[in-house]
Amino acid sequence: MNLSANFTLKELTKSDTATRLDLDNTPNDEQIESLRLLCENILQPVRDHFGKPVKISSGFRAPAVNQATGGSATSDHCKGQACDFEIDGVPNPELAEWIENNLKYTQLILEFYTQGQPNSGWVHCSFSPENLKSQSLTAVKVAGKTQYLQGLQA
Most distant CA pair in the chain: distance in Å? Predict the structure, then answer.
């Protein structure tokens, strides 16, 4: 099932964790609609702008899959509203900055980027049409714990 011109339901629900642990990662109709909106408003514009495939590392996560990955109990991934991704050859800070400057979104996180290593970490972006607060954060590890800093800090 296509969610937009370049994205399918299969790639937004693929989960190595679900496969390894034999967990069902099938979204319901409401979650599929949220994934469609995420693709149309975030992923497809990113793909169109950069002209390169978008590599999705984590899209939809059923609650059991989310728990197995250590995700937050309130994660937008469980609603079909969030995705973690990268583009080969595009530094993650550049990707995040383009989204911040050009798209409407709920939350944008530059996750675990290491300065001077353009392909380190990944970009997390969520889209909920009822909550387009455009919150930008940077996730870093401090003493083994994740901390979120305000804004994109590359």
Answer: 43
Taking only the tens place, the pLDDT of each residue in 22-56 is 999 999 999 999 999 999 999 999 999 999 999 99
Instruction: Give the tokens for residue 154.
Output: 């590359």
Phi, psi of 73 (to 5 degrees): -60, -20
pTM of this structure: 0.94
Sequence letter at residue 115: Q
How would CATH label the architecture of 9-150?
2-Layer Sandwich (3.30)
* Integer angstrom CA distances of residue 106 from 14, 44, 147, 152: 23, 16, 19, 14
Distance (Å) of CA 6 to CA 51, 85, 115, 133: 11, 14, 31, 26
Instruction: Answer whether 87's CB lies under 8 Å from 51's CB.
Output: no
User: Phi first, then psi: what are they for 148, rounded to 5°?
Assistant: -110, 120
